[in-house]
């Protein structure tokens, strides 16, 4: 069977998990084949590639990337630090920093790289040198890969954005954007409106194969008349403001046809590279999209819609010599939250993602609800490449931190295959088919939050990817159940393969989610809205959940102040039945870090005891001693035990608890630091013997702890950004131990949720749970 037919057969049986093919598909000799998918092999934080002596907290990013022709050296632009960086990716599991090249040393301290490409032994870097929006300028620097010295430089005559190389390596094409000033007001317009001159254009570089860069030549392709008036071709195409085209992104097909987007103008232009002649221009058109979230209110509500919105595409790519695809990020007036395929002969849309791209973000727990009123997932980057006879489209979500993979063997009928999680702001999508790799460079860098810009590497291969560990099923309307910020877990009484989890204050109202762990990945199958005593939906900062065998639930609710910390008992319908406050003296000693977990026991006489963990110390308690609370439901009384936290020497860090659960005659807790990425050190499960009675009033006996399992290696094994908030833990009815990370609803986090089956309780805790 040919590779293409093998992939097609596997794809036909693709699972809902989103991998490229289903497990268990048999080959000709009836042996099962493992699924084929892109597996994440490494996540490299580019701050580790900074120059010696530079502050590790200095902003440094990876925006657009390119690769050497042997596929072993990756080059990325770092606009924040005004340089380009080099990575050795010969070993895809262990990228290695090769240092950087400062553009300030080649020009001015404010010179900013905007894109990069590689031809032969040369790196082509386009550089923005503009003094202002009204005086745009730029250059093309040609750097030797061998010694990193500049061998040639070309004046581009304006502010450049992207660069593309023709497949025959005869031409480079550069979009000269001359971008608008969003704070300027043109005559008769509003702030940020077009036109704002000078107009942008295209620069073609004749590479003259075999010649040195000194022999290369540039030639401009104007997109307006010399007097600034509109070209009839652009005006007739319905371009928004053809006197100020602002080209954004370029792509070249095998016939040396250049396609470029005019993002702010909602258009696409085709140019014949050998002659520099504009052959076609067309509008990207508008779209109406329903079933999306359009209100930033802390609720993932997929009932909103947008009507007749311009697509305003950013990146584009040729699928073949006829069809091209666009990522419809939007700019000032548009953005349709998806991507489209156009027939270049007619300029017509032959396929559009509609609401499906945004709904992927929801289903995979990556939806950035805080961008709902803006442009949602903001699909920005797009790349097309062929691997083993199958052509794929990769579409990156700038705001929800993922890349969606589609099989586009039939250009007019793309088929979704997989979601790849990234770090924040995936900008550069770099297929490396010769090595079966995909590199994704991310432009957001936040040292204070501990989430750094990085280059993620994926390899196409056999096996089930670590991501996703959990997804959601459709609700009764067919929309995926919205979820995120999972900070707690509980077993479901009588259901060995089900768990409960609960959303925290990142979303409102609070919802209890049912998780089916019998499937791979685990699936959120049901959402129960939590209500107050009057039966109205309510938003609790639920940091712990326990499903009572006698029916209903306990929630551990964290307050913004100590007095706001409460135990809340719900009935089986999620309606509040009881609220238990902390004792006044304990509440007075807490700040904003209170309850973080809840569990309970019921003896054979029906006496229920609830255990709750506080995250940090009460101010009046000894340093490093945090409280485990014992609440006797029948007596209505609290008593307290102490737990000794580990220590940290990292400035700004702290150690605290984030979960508690009963394991036989023990209590298991999660102890963690507040660090993530390569800095993370403490993500551990400890146990203490569960006291059989209340502690004496006014005392705080410290319970000896025992390490049960270090979860950090499990988190690192995903080859992604190590998540900070390991917050959920339980033992399911099937005896397996499950843990989950809180993705903070993508606030100061990558948004990836790691859902772990750590194995049997007997293996973790030395006994059956």
From TrEMBL:
Residues annotated as domain Choice-of-anchor I: 335-417
Keywords from the UniProt entry: Signal
Highest classification ranks of the organism: Bacteria, Bacillati, Actinomycetota, Actinomycetes, Kitasatosporales
UniProt-recorded name of the protein: Uncharacterized protein
Database matches in InterPro entries: Choice_anch_I, Mesenchyme-surface_protein, Phytase-like_dom, Quino_amine_DH_bsu, WD40/YVTN_repeat-like_dom_sf
Source species: Streptomyces spinoverrucosus
PANTHER family (alphabetical): MESENCHYME-SPECIFIC CELL SURFACE GLYCOPROTEIN
Domain Phytase-like: 482-744
Endpoints of the signal sequence: 1-28
């Amino acid at each position: 069977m040919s590779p293409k037919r093998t992939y097609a057969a596997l794809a036909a049986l693709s699972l809902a998990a989103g991998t490229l093919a289903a497990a268990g598909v048999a080959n000709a000799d009836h042996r099962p084949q493992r699924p084929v998918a892109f597996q994440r092999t490494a996540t490299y934080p580019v701050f580790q590639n900074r120059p010696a002596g530079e502050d590790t907290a200095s902003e440094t990013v990876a925006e657009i990337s390119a690769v050497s022709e042997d596929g072993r050296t990756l080059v990325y632009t770092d606009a924040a630090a005004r340089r380009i960086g080099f990575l050795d990716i010969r070993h895809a599991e262990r990228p290695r920093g090769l240092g950087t090249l400062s553009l300030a040393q080649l020009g001015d301290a404010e010179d900013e790289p905007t894109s990069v490409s590689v031809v032969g032994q040369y790196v082509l870097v386009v550089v923005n040198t503009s003094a202002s929006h009204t005086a745009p300028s730029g250059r093309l620097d040609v750097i030797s890969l061998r010694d990193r010295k500049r061998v040639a430089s070309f004046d581009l005559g304006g502010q450049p954005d992207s660069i593309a190389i023709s497949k025959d390596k005869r031409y480079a094409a550069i979009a000269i954007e001359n971008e608008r000033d969003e704070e300027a007001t043109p005559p008769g317009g509003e702030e940020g409106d077009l036109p704002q001159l000078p107009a942008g254009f295209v620069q073609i570089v004749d590479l003259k194969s075999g010649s040195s860069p000194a022999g290369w030549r540039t030639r401009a392709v104007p997109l307006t008349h010399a007097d600034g008036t509109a070209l009839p071709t652009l005006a007739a195409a319905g371009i928004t403001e053809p006197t100020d085209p602002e080209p954004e992104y370029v792509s070249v097909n095998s016939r040396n046809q250049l396609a470029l987007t005019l993002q702010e103008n909602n258009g696409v232009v085709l140019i014949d590279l050998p002659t520099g002649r504009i052959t076609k221009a067309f509008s990207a058109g508008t779209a109406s999209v329903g079933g999306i979230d359009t209100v930033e209110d802390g609720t993932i509500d997929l009932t909103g819609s947008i009507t007749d919105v311009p697509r305003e595409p950013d990146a584009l790519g040729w699928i073949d010599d006829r069809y091209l695809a666009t990522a419809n990020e939007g700019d000032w007036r548009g953005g349709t939250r998806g991507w489209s395929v156009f027939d270049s002969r007619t300029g017509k849309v032959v396929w559009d993602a509609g609401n499906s791209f945004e709904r992927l973000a929801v289903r995979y727990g990556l939806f950035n609800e805080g961008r709902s009123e803006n442009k949602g997932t903001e699909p920005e980057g797009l790349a097309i490449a062929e691997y083993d006879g199958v052509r794929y489209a990769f579409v990156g979500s700038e705001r929800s931190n993922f890349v969606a993979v589609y099989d586009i063997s039939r250009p007019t009928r793309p088929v979704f295959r997989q979601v790849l999680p990234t770090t924040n702001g995936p900008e550069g999508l770099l297929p490396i088919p010769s090595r079966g790799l995909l590199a994704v460079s991310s432009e957001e860098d936040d040292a204070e939050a501990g989430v750094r810009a990085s280059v993620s590497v994926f390899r196409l291969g056999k096996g089930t990817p670590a991501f996703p560990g959990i997804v959601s099923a459709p609700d009764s309307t067919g929309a995926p159940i919205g979820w995120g910020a999972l900070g707690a877990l509980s077993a479901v009484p009588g259901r060995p393969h089900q768990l409960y989890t609960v959303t925290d204050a990142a979303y409102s109202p609070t919802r209890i989610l049912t998780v089916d762990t019998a499937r791979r990945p685990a699936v959120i199958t049901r959402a129960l809205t939590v209500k107050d005593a009057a039966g109205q939906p309510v938003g609790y900062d639920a940091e712990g959940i326990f499903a009572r065998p006698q029916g209903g639930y306990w929630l551990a609710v964290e307050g913004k102040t100590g007095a706001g910390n409460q135990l809340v008992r719900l009935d089986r319908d999620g309606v509040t039945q009881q609220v238990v406050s902390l004792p006044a003296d304990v509440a007075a000693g807490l700040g904003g870090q209170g309850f973080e977990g809840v569990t309970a026991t019921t003896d054979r006489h029906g006496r229920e005891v609830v255990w709750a963990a506080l995250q940090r110390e009460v101010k009046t308690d000894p340093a490093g001693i945090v409280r485990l609370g014992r609440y006797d439901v029948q007596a209505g009384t609290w008593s307290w035990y102490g737990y000794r936290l580990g220590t940290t020497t990292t400035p700004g860090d702290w150690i605290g608890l984030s979960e508690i659960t009963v394991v036989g005659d023990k209590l298991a807790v999660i102890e963690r630091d507040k660090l993530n990425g390569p800095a993370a050190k403490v993500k551990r499960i400890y146990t203490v013997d569960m006291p059989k009675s209340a502690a004496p009033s006014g005392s705080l006996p410290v319970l000896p702890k025992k390490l049960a399992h270090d979860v950090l290696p499990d988190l690192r094994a995903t080859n992604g950004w190590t998540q900070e908030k390991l917050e959920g833990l339980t033992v399911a009815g099937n005896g397996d131990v499950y843990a989950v990370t809180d993705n903070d609803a993508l606030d100061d986090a990558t948004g990836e949720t790691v859902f772990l089956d750590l194995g049997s309780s007997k293996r973790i805790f030395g006994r059956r749970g």
